[in-house]
Specification:
Number of strands: 14
Bound molecules: guanosine-5'-diphosphate
Oligomer: single chain
Shape: globular
CATH architecture of the largest domain: 3-Layer(aba) Sandwich
Radius of gyration: 18 Å
Structural class: alpha/beta
Distance between the termini: 13 Å
Strand content: 15-25%
């Protein structure tokens, strides 16, 4: 069994490669829930839905959000009747969210995800990191912002001074899934807002120490491939580089996968982690995703 820790962009890209070379039944994906909240009357678990759509080949992989070729009739009508939405939710995507909201109220988020994954024909296990509502605040030069306000309304523009999030309890199965895995893959997701929330769950860091862990750096050179990760790392005084990423995971990491462009960092990385894999980590085609996935799987002892 392989367990992947995921956010909603970098790791789903990698999952498109992993699912081509690993038996989906041998795959568990633990997904960040830090940014989950209610919008327009429905529960939005953006990273979980991105993983669900990725694993069922429905993902809009230009935006890494929502369903490809979705329509926006409800969204547009809401705007017309004076009810604009912060998130642009497509019609098919909204159906997923309505179902999840209803299921959640009856059976909780973890079971709701399990039911939806099954309905979408997904053979892998997809576990939300927590069933509890978490709280994340971006402390910026224009004040304290909700995560989605920072990301969407302010387009990640404000200067970030700090990132604060509440601790939550892991969903049932999170710690056991890691414990029973042959390896854990930390995808190239935002180390601050996607991976750290999973690592801060009680028991997770401890079990990772007893498991083979390979992480892919979302930072190449001195910047993130996309999104605000570098701003968040800077605010927390973490070096914006693969070295900074490795140091965040240094207490349990066995192998760090960095891009060819970071080959000059190899000896520095070797002081933090036993094995350093240098390869192309820019996942701009299915072949690139499969090649990266292959390198990761091959590295598992
Ligand atoms: P979010 O939930 O949408 O913030 O997405 P994630 O946390 O899963 O992923 C965001 C991270 O993915 C960013 O820090 C990017 O640098 C990283 N990323 C996106 N595409 C790639 C890629 O092709 N290669 C690598 N190495 N990182 C990527």
């Amino acid at each position: 069994m392989i367990t992947v820790l995921s956010g909603g962009t970098g790791t789903p890209k990698l999952l498109q490669g992993i699912k081509e070379i690993v038996d989906p039944e041998e795959l568990t994906i633990i997904v960040n829930t830090l940014e989950n909240d209610y919008f327009s009357g429905v529960y939005v678990s953006a990273d979980i839905d991105t993983v669900l759509y990725t694993m069922s080949d429905m993902i809009n992989d230009e935006l890494w959000y929502g369903v490809k070729d979705d329509t926006f009739i409800t969204h547009e009508r809401l705007e017309e009747i004076g009810c604009p939405e912060l998130l642009r939710i497509g019609d098919i995507d909204r159906a997923t969210k309505i179902q999840k909201t209803q299921l959640m109220e009856k059976v909780g988020l973890a079971k709701a995800c399990e039911i939806q994954a099954k309905n979408m024909g997904i053979k892998s296990r997809i576990i939300p990191m927590s069933e509890e509502q978490s709280d994340i605040k971006i402390i910026s030069d224009i004040g304290e912002l909700e995560f989605h306000d920072f990301l969407i309304k302010h387009q990640s523009q404000p200067e970030v001074l700090d990132v604060k999030f509440s601790n939550v309890t892991p969903s049932p199965g999170v710690v056991d899934a890691i414990k029973n895995s042959d390896a854990v893959v930390i995808g190239p997701s935002n180390p601050v807002t996607s991976i750290s929330p999973i690592l801060s769950l009680e028991g997770v860091r401890d079990v990772l120490k007893d498991t083979y862990v390979v992480a892919v750096s979302p930072i190449i050179g001195s910047d993130a491939v996309s999104g605000p990760a570098s701003k968040f790392m800077k605010a927390l005084n973490i070096d914006v580089s693969s070295v900074g990423v490795a140091s965040l995971y240094s207490d349990f990491l066995d192998n760090i996968v960095v891009d060819d462009k970071d080959s000059n960092l190899k000896s520095q990385l070797n002081q933090i982690v036993n094995k350093v894999t240098v390869t192309n980590t820019i996942m701009n085609s299915l072949d690139a995703k499969k090649n990266l996935a292959q390198k990761i799987i091959e590295s598992i002892p």
